[in-house]
Description:
The protein is of the alpha/beta class. The chain contains 6 helices and 6 strands. It has a single domain, classed as Rossmann fold, CATH 3.40.50.
Amino acid sequence: xxxxxxxxxxxxxxxGKTTAALGTxxxxxxxxxxxxxxxxxxxxxxxxxxxxxEKIDNLDWFICGKGFVxxxxxxxxxxxxxxxxxxLALEKVKSDQYDLVxxxxxxxxxxxxxLDVTKxxxxxxxxxxxxxxxxxxxxxxxxxxxxxxTVTVMEPLKHAxxxxxxxxxxxxx
Length: 173
């Protein structure tokens, strides 16, 4: 019996959206599958998951961002990098060489008006049947939620940062 791929969204203001997606990546890898991670907006850096990814076969990792978009002065450059990343995502999805593709922080692209949400929906609707795709990021567009099979909204009840505790290596990055 052929398996049907899923469309999964991890959204909300809480911590753990990318972490949950990477947990699914490890499940896929554990069963001999091939995984592609494309990170939008996040810039270069020694994030623990990236350091580990370099050591894992069957895991391709691409960074398609220059850092989170907080300032308007670089918005055109940020938009261009995000759109280049989306073209890469189209290529990787259509290649049919992966069992799971993670589009990390992609929900920000329509939110920041970097890409029309219909382009993401077309990518999802045109994926190979067996391919699963996980989308992460805050404020997932209702149209994305509509096409997804599974949507998890992560909301914080309490966060260490709110009490002045700084991000910790191995926990937040």
